[in-house]
Structure formats: structure tokens, C-alpha cells
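Example record used in the benchmark description.
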Amino acid sequence: MSVQDISARVEGNDRSVTVHYDFGNDLLDAAEKFGEDVVFTRYIAAAKIDLQSLLRRGISAGKADDEIAGMVAAWKPGTRTVVGKSDMERARDALGKMSPEEKAALLAELGLA
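Model output (C-alpha cells):
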């Protein structure tokens, strides 16, 4: 997988350009071609973006700081962690979509009204 076709276009422009670029066959080959410092620097840059994305998903899901810290501790660069909603968050979302009549019926069914 050494040479890859890389394409790019600009929004609002019909033109597209494709080039062939040799990134190397593997980590060692890439390090030989570009230097270990370049390969490591690019790895760190991409991993930071992925980690920031994880943090944003945690914030958007309403997770507490300690919950997000736990997600980070379990995170592995190059993988995507799905951030699920808690039971309380799902219930809140469901209740928010109910009409007042549906809410009253649910509360009565639960013996809370």
C-alpha cells in the first residue's frame, strides 16, 4: 500500500486533482522516508485531534468531568469510542418529546400522579 491516489477538490469548483503519493509501506518504511521525528509529530497531531473529538462527544452527551476522564483512560489512539447516553438522559429525552397528556398518563401508570 505504498503508493496511494490522493484526490482533492475545492467547494464551488468542479476541478479535482489526483496525485500518486508514496507514504511508505509501514511505520518503519515511513520513518526511513521522512524521519522518525516527522512520523511521530504527525502521529501526535492526529491523535490530539482524535482525543479532542472524544472530549467533545463526552461534553455533548452531558458527561461529568470524571466520566470523561474515565473515557480517556480507556481510549486508544486510532479507535473511536461511542459515547452513549445514561438511562436518565434517555428518559429525559423521551419525556421531552411527550405531550402533556402522555406525560400525565405515564405518571398515573407509575403511580406518581
